[in-house]
Specification:
By secondary structure, the chain is of the alpha+beta class. About 50% of the residues lie in helices and about 10% in strands. The chain is elongated, with a radius of gyration of 32 Å.
Length: about 400
Amino acid sequence: MPLKDVTIKNAKPRDKAYKLADEKGLYLYIKPNGSKAWRLKYRFLGKEKTLSIGLYPDVSLQAARNARDNARTQLTDKIDPGLAKQVSKRSAKEASENSFEMIAREWYTKFSTKWSPNHRERILRRLEKDIFPWIGKRPISEITAPELLTVLRRMESRGAIETAHRASQNCGQVFRYAVATGRAERDPSNDLKGAIPPAKKKHHASIIKPGAIGELLRAIEGYQGHFVTKCALRLAPLVFVRPGELRHAEWNEFNLAIGEWRIPAEKMKMRVTHIVPLSSQAIAIIRELRALTGDGKYLFPSVRSSKRAMSENTVLAALRRLGYTSDEMTGHGFRSMASTLLNEQGWNPDAIERQLAHGERNSVRAAYNYAEYLPERKKMMQQWADYLDGLKAGGEIIQIRQRA
């Protein structure tokens, strides 16, 4: 006699497990602990077998009967339902293990150890925000070029065209890694060349007029926010490194006795050790900061955890708080400021480029020449700091040095 929902609900556990039969081999198996499991008894190639369907009430009576009917259809087609279920579970497991997200994270773990901290954070955030929510769970071998293009166009539609191009490059790296490790046959990102419009080259906003620089420096001195943030703002124009290099500065990289900050190659964009000569003004700021953060790893730790570096948006947010918009000044703008004025003032362009840590075409040469022009750079950095002091004081604006 077919089971009814009320019979199932009222069935109580006994000292020993027992069965409540439905129809066509379906029954409910009730254990002493009270669990109720749907099972199907069937025969395949003359051998009696049992198929587990699921637990009640997660699987209702009607759902169990539907599963039974599907299994009987498979039997008619000479398919063992139990074996088919095992194959399906195995395929689902393989699909999960070979999903885009799983392989992307594997690729990231393998290769990110050689990237700078800022680069690592940027790529992982891009994948987690713009890629994984849409194709992360998809088997990587099944992702098509049109499917990837749909994801990239989400970024394009919000105006993040450069991000879309970079995301496409990252996805291509993941696909090629999957091909190399035998989990995909091709890289569909290759089919998307020209599908996203080129990004307009953007220059980081910067203040380069001496009078306006003086106003900025005075505004920084009057900053009323967190002291560590103020120190970062004060130090930025004196060292003009990239924002990520500044916020990831570690105490063990500084030698104040000789006035040098040596940034390890793995932290630098061009993967070459970089020496930053420290002016007396920079050293004074760093010594002030040591009293507050000197016991930790970073000069500029996160406000949430001393084990992490300051957020990449902290300096930018501080500039906004001082009233400078994104069209007026950015964290990168201190580099443009120094580059423009130092060139105008007649310093050796090669010494300026080396101090800005711009790329050396010959990577082997770059690895050995990071100290190139160092005596001249030390002099330049001190006179640059003195010049900024003059602007901050509102004094007469003079050239530091003229070309020979």
